[in-house]
Design brief:
- This protein has 13 helices and eight strands.
- By secondary structure, the chain is α/β, with parallel strands linked by helices.
- Strands 3-2-1-4-5-6-7-8 form an eight-stranded mixed beta sheet, sandwiched between helices.
- Helix 4 runs parallel beside helix 5, helix 8 packs across helix 11 and helix 8 packs across helix 12.
- The longest helix has 28 residues.
- It is globular.
- The relative contact order is 0.08.
- The model has no long low-confidence stretch (mean pLDDT 93).
Protein backbone atom coordinates (compact mmCIF):
# COMPACT_ATOMS: atom_id res chain seq x y z
CA UNK A 1 0.00 0.00 0.00
CA UNK A 2 0.99 3.66 -0.15
CA UNK A 3 2.10 5.69 2.86
CA UNK A 4 4.14 8.69 3.83
CA UNK A 5 7.16 8.42 6.16
CA UNK A 6 8.11 11.48 8.20
CA UNK A 7 11.52 11.36 9.89
CA UNK A 8 14.40 9.53 8.24
CA UNK A 9 16.88 8.94 11.03
CA UNK A 10 18.28 5.44 11.38
CA UNK A 11 14.93 3.95 12.41
CA UNK A 12 12.87 5.85 9.84
CA UNK A 13 15.40 5.14 7.10
CA UNK A 14 15.54 1.41 7.79
CA UNK A 15 11.76 1.15 8.16
CA UNK A 16 11.38 2.86 4.80
CA UNK A 17 13.77 0.39 3.20
CA UNK A 18 11.96 -2.59 4.75
CA UNK A 19 8.59 -1.29 3.56
CA UNK A 20 9.89 -0.75 0.02
CA UNK A 21 11.32 -4.26 0.09
CA UNK A 22 7.86 -5.49 1.06
CA UNK A 23 6.26 -3.89 -1.99
CA UNK A 24 4.86 -0.69 -0.46
CA UNK A 25 5.19 2.74 -2.02
CA UNK A 26 6.74 5.20 0.44
CA UNK A 27 6.61 8.97 0.05
CA UNK A 28 9.43 10.14 2.32
CA UNK A 29 10.09 13.48 4.01
CA UNK A 30 12.76 14.73 6.39
CA UNK A 31 14.07 18.21 7.14
CA UNK A 32 17.42 16.91 5.86
CA UNK A 33 17.41 16.79 2.07
CA UNK A 34 20.37 14.40 2.23
CA UNK A 35 18.30 11.95 4.28
CA UNK A 36 15.52 12.17 1.71
CA UNK A 37 17.93 11.53 -1.16
CA UNK A 38 19.33 8.50 0.64
CA UNK A 39 15.95 6.73 0.82
CA UNK A 40 15.15 7.85 -2.72
CA UNK A 41 18.21 5.86 -3.78
CA UNK A 42 16.50 2.83 -2.22
CA UNK A 43 13.27 3.37 -4.12
CA UNK A 44 11.28 5.89 -2.09
CA UNK A 45 9.56 8.92 -3.60
CA UNK A 46 11.04 12.07 -2.11
CA UNK A 47 9.08 15.01 -0.75
CA UNK A 48 10.30 18.54 -0.07
CA UNK A 49 7.84 19.32 2.75
CA UNK A 50 4.99 17.78 4.71
CA UNK A 51 2.54 19.46 2.36
CA UNK A 52 4.38 18.04 -0.66
CA UNK A 53 4.36 14.58 0.89
CA UNK A 54 0.62 14.68 1.61
CA UNK A 55 -0.06 15.99 -1.92
CA UNK A 56 1.79 12.98 -3.34
CA UNK A 57 -0.34 10.56 -1.31
CA UNK A 58 -3.03 9.60 -3.82
CA UNK A 59 -4.54 6.54 -2.16
CA UNK A 60 -7.56 7.00 0.12
CA UNK A 61 -7.47 7.14 3.06
CA UNK A 62 -4.11 8.87 3.20
CA UNK A 63 -1.70 7.23 5.65
CA UNK A 64 1.44 8.75 7.16
CA UNK A 65 3.90 7.28 9.65
CA UNK A 66 5.67 9.74 11.98
CA UNK A 67 9.12 8.79 13.28
CA UNK A 68 10.48 11.92 14.96
CA UNK A 69 11.66 12.69 18.53
CA UNK A 70 9.00 12.79 21.23
CA UNK A 71 7.68 16.04 22.66
CA UNK A 72 7.36 19.20 20.59
CA UNK A 73 8.69 17.69 17.31
CA UNK A 74 6.02 14.98 17.42
CA UNK A 75 3.29 17.39 18.53
CA UNK A 76 4.06 19.90 15.81
CA UNK A 77 4.36 17.26 13.08
CA UNK A 78 1.12 15.48 13.95
CA UNK A 79 -0.84 18.73 14.25
CA UNK A 80 0.40 19.88 10.85
CA UNK A 81 -0.37 16.51 9.29
CA UNK A 82 -3.87 16.52 10.77
CA UNK A 83 -4.49 19.86 9.06
CA UNK A 84 -3.13 18.58 5.75
CA UNK A 85 -4.49 15.01 5.58
CA UNK A 86 -8.17 15.78 5.39
CA UNK A 87 -11.20 13.82 6.56
CA UNK A 88 -10.47 10.13 7.01
CA UNK A 89 -6.68 10.44 7.04
CA UNK A 90 -4.63 8.16 9.27
CA UNK A 91 -1.49 9.18 11.13
CA UNK A 92 0.69 6.53 12.81
CA UNK A 93 2.98 7.70 15.60
CA UNK A 94 5.85 5.22 15.87
CA UNK A 95 8.03 7.31 18.18
CA UNK A 96 8.50 7.09 21.93
CA UNK A 97 5.63 9.41 22.81
CA UNK A 98 4.31 9.55 26.37
CA UNK A 99 0.97 7.76 26.27
CA UNK A 100 -0.76 10.75 27.93
CA UNK A 101 0.51 13.00 25.16
CA UNK A 102 -0.63 10.36 22.68
CA UNK A 103 -4.18 10.44 24.04
CA UNK A 104 -4.22 14.23 23.79
CA UNK A 105 -2.97 14.07 20.20
CA UNK A 106 -5.56 11.40 19.40
CA UNK A 107 -8.33 13.74 20.58
CA UNK A 108 -6.83 16.66 18.62
CA UNK A 109 -6.71 14.59 15.45
CA UNK A 110 -10.21 13.16 15.94
CA UNK A 111 -11.61 16.69 16.15
CA UNK A 112 -10.22 17.24 12.64
CA UNK A 113 -11.57 13.98 11.24
CA UNK A 114 -8.17 12.26 11.32
CA UNK A 115 -7.36 9.00 13.11
CA UNK A 116 -4.20 8.59 15.17
CA UNK A 117 -2.66 5.18 15.74
CA UNK A 118 0.08 4.74 18.36
CA UNK A 119 2.62 2.12 17.36
CA UNK A 120 5.16 1.24 20.02
CA UNK A 121 8.18 0.21 17.96
CA UNK A 122 11.13 -1.87 19.17
CA UNK A 123 14.04 -3.25 17.20
CA UNK A 124 16.54 -0.42 16.90
CA UNK A 125 19.09 -0.44 14.12
CA UNK A 126 18.63 -4.20 13.66
CA UNK A 127 15.05 -3.74 12.48
CA UNK A 128 15.87 -3.63 8.77
CA UNK A 129 17.22 -7.17 8.93
CA UNK A 130 15.33 -8.70 11.85
CA UNK A 131 12.07 -6.75 11.72
CA UNK A 132 10.39 -4.57 14.34
CA UNK A 133 8.28 -5.61 17.29
CA UNK A 134 5.11 -3.52 17.01
CA UNK A 135 2.70 -2.85 19.88
CA UNK A 136 -0.20 -1.05 18.22
CA UNK A 137 -2.97 0.91 19.90
CA UNK A 138 -5.86 2.51 18.07
CA UNK A 139 -9.38 2.19 16.69
CA UNK A 140 -10.14 -1.21 15.17
CA UNK A 141 -11.05 -0.18 11.62
CA UNK A 142 -8.03 2.07 11.11
CA UNK A 143 -5.60 -0.44 12.60
CA UNK A 144 -7.04 -3.16 10.38
CA UNK A 145 -6.62 -0.93 7.30
CA UNK A 146 -2.93 -0.38 8.16
CA UNK A 147 -2.14 -4.02 8.97
CA UNK A 148 -0.27 -4.62 5.68
CA UNK A 149 2.24 -2.01 6.87
CA UNK A 150 2.61 -3.57 10.31
CA UNK A 151 2.92 -7.10 8.95
CA UNK A 152 5.71 -6.02 6.59
CA UNK A 153 7.68 -4.22 9.30
CA UNK A 154 7.33 -6.99 11.89
CA UNK A 155 8.77 -10.51 11.80
CA UNK A 156 6.31 -13.42 12.15
CA UNK A 157 4.32 -12.98 15.37
CA UNK A 158 6.03 -9.62 15.97
CA UNK A 159 2.94 -7.44 15.60
CA UNK A 160 -0.19 -7.19 17.74
CA UNK A 161 -3.09 -4.80 18.12
CA UNK A 162 -2.77 -4.51 21.89
CA UNK A 163 -5.70 -2.24 22.68
CA UNK A 164 -7.44 1.11 22.17
CA UNK A 165 -5.72 4.45 21.63
CA UNK A 166 -2.80 4.89 24.05
CA UNK A 167 -2.28 1.16 24.62
CA UNK A 168 0.59 0.94 22.14
CA UNK A 169 2.59 3.75 23.70
CA UNK A 170 1.87 2.54 27.24
CA UNK A 171 3.08 -1.01 26.53
CA UNK A 172 6.21 0.32 24.78
CA UNK A 173 6.89 2.53 27.81
CA UNK A 174 6.81 -0.45 30.15
CA UNK A 175 8.81 -2.51 27.63
CA UNK A 176 11.59 0.07 27.82
CA UNK A 177 11.39 0.23 31.60
CA UNK A 178 11.98 -3.52 31.71
CA UNK A 179 14.84 -3.05 29.26
CA UNK A 180 16.47 -0.60 31.71
CA UNK A 181 16.36 -3.21 34.47
CA UNK A 182 17.74 -6.01 32.28
CA UNK A 183 20.61 -3.85 31.05
CA UNK A 184 21.50 -2.81 34.58
CA UNK A 185 21.48 -6.42 35.81
CA UNK A 186 23.80 -7.50 33.00
CA UNK A 187 26.06 -4.53 33.69
CA UNK A 188 26.34 -5.25 37.40
CA UNK A 189 26.85 -8.97 36.88
CA UNK A 190 29.65 -8.54 34.38
CA UNK A 191 31.38 -5.98 36.58
CA UNK A 192 31.38 -8.52 39.43
CA UNK A 193 32.89 -11.06 37.04
CA UNK A 194 35.49 -8.55 35.83
CA UNK A 195 36.65 -7.70 39.36
CA UNK A 196 36.61 -11.30 40.61
CA UNK A 197 39.74 -13.37 41.46
CA UNK A 198 39.29 -15.17 38.13
CA UNK A 199 40.57 -13.96 34.78
CA UNK A 200 37.34 -14.54 32.90
CA UNK A 201 36.97 -14.05 29.19
CA UNK A 202 33.81 -11.98 29.48
CA UNK A 203 32.99 -12.37 25.81
CA UNK A 204 33.22 -16.14 26.18
CA UNK A 205 30.82 -16.10 29.13
CA UNK A 206 28.38 -13.78 27.37
CA UNK A 207 28.39 -16.04 24.32
CA UNK A 208 28.11 -19.17 26.48
CA UNK A 209 25.07 -17.84 28.30
CA UNK A 210 23.20 -17.28 25.03
CA UNK A 211 22.91 -21.08 24.70
CA UNK A 212 20.25 -22.76 26.89
CA UNK A 213 20.94 -20.49 29.89
CA UNK A 214 17.95 -19.14 31.80
CA UNK A 215 19.41 -15.61 31.41
CA UNK A 216 19.77 -15.82 27.63
CA UNK A 217 18.24 -12.97 25.65
CA UNK A 218 18.77 -10.82 22.58
CA UNK A 219 20.38 -8.19 24.83
CA UNK A 220 22.90 -10.80 25.94
CA UNK A 221 23.59 -11.67 22.30
CA UNK A 222 24.29 -7.99 21.67
CA UNK A 223 26.60 -7.90 24.70
CA UNK A 224 28.52 -10.88 23.35
CA UNK A 225 28.86 -9.00 20.06
CA UNK A 226 30.05 -5.88 21.90
CA UNK A 227 32.75 -7.88 23.73
CA UNK A 228 33.80 -9.45 20.43
CA UNK A 229 34.24 -6.01 18.86
CA UNK A 230 35.95 -4.48 21.91
CA UNK A 231 36.91 -7.11 24.55
CA UNK A 232 37.67 -4.62 27.33
CA UNK A 233 35.05 -2.07 26.23
CA UNK A 234 37.91 0.43 26.13
CA UNK A 235 36.26 2.47 23.39
CA UNK A 236 32.95 2.77 25.24
CA UNK A 237 32.32 5.57 27.73
CA UNK A 238 30.27 4.56 30.78
CA UNK A 239 27.64 7.22 30.06
CA UNK A 240 24.08 5.98 29.66
CA UNK A 241 21.38 8.38 28.48
CA UNK A 242 17.66 7.90 29.01
CA UNK A 243 15.04 9.14 26.58
CA UNK A 244 12.05 9.28 28.90
CA UNK A 245 10.37 5.89 28.86
CA UNK A 246 12.07 4.65 32.04
CA UNK A 247 11.05 7.79 33.91
CA UNK A 248 7.46 7.46 32.66
CA UNK A 249 7.39 3.79 33.69
CA UNK A 250 8.52 4.69 37.21
CA UNK A 251 5.89 7.45 37.37
CA UNK A 252 3.20 5.03 36.19
CA UNK A 253 4.27 2.57 38.89
CA UNK A 254 3.93 5.33 41.50
CA UNK A 255 0.52 6.34 40.12
CA UNK A 256 -0.66 2.72 40.26
CA UNK A 257 0.93 1.97 43.67
CA UNK A 258 2.99 -0.78 42.06
CA UNK A 259 6.41 -1.42 43.69
CA UNK A 260 9.05 -1.33 40.94
CA UNK A 261 12.43 -1.13 42.72
CA UNK A 262 14.53 -2.72 39.97
CA UNK A 263 13.32 -0.41 37.20
CA UNK A 264 13.50 2.62 39.51
CA UNK A 265 17.06 1.88 40.62
CA UNK A 266 18.15 1.16 37.05
CA UNK A 267 16.94 4.65 36.12
CA UNK A 268 18.91 6.12 39.04
CA UNK A 269 22.00 4.20 37.89
CA UNK A 270 21.72 5.78 34.45
CA UNK A 271 21.60 9.21 36.05
CA UNK A 272 24.67 8.38 38.15
CA UNK A 273 26.55 7.27 35.02
CA UNK A 274 26.31 10.81 33.67
CA UNK A 275 28.09 12.42 36.61
CA UNK A 276 31.82 13.04 36.40
CA UNK A 277 31.83 13.05 40.19
CA UNK A 278 28.79 12.61 42.39
CA UNK A 279 28.11 15.55 44.71
CA UNK A 280 26.07 13.26 46.95
CA UNK A 281 29.18 11.06 47.30
CA UNK A 282 31.16 14.17 48.24
CA UNK A 283 28.60 14.94 50.96
CA UNK A 284 28.78 11.37 52.29
CA UNK A 285 32.61 11.49 52.27
CA UNK A 286 32.60 14.83 54.09
CA UNK A 287 30.27 13.47 56.76
CA UNK A 288 32.38 10.34 57.21
CA UNK A 289 35.44 12.52 57.62
CA UNK A 290 33.68 14.65 60.24
CA UNK A 291 32.73 11.77 62.50
CA UNK A 292 35.44 9.26 61.67
CA UNK A 293 38.39 11.20 60.33
CA UNK A 294 38.30 9.33 57.02
CA UNK A 295 38.54 11.27 53.78
CA UNK A 296 40.28 11.17 50.44
CA UNK A 297 41.29 14.73 49.61
CA UNK A 298 41.31 16.06 46.07
CA UNK A 299 44.67 16.87 44.55
CA UNK A 300 45.83 20.45 45.00
CA UNK A 301 45.76 22.57 41.86
CA UNK A 302 47.81 25.39 43.38
Amino acid sequence: MQLGMVGLGKMGNYMTQRLIGGGHQVIAYDRSSAAVQDVVSHGAVGASSLADMVAKLTAAPKVAWVMVPSGAPTDDTIHELADLMGQGGIVIDGGNTNYKDGLRLYADCKAKGVSLIDAGTSGGVWGLKEGYCLMVGGDDAQVKHCEPIFLTLAPPNGYAHVGPPGAGHFSKMVHNGIEYGLMQAYGEGFEILKDSPYDYDLGQLAELWTHASVVRSWLLELLALAFKEDPGLKDIRGYVEDTGEGRWTVQAAIDENVPAPVITLSLMARMASRQDESFSAKVAAALRNQFGGHAVKTESHA
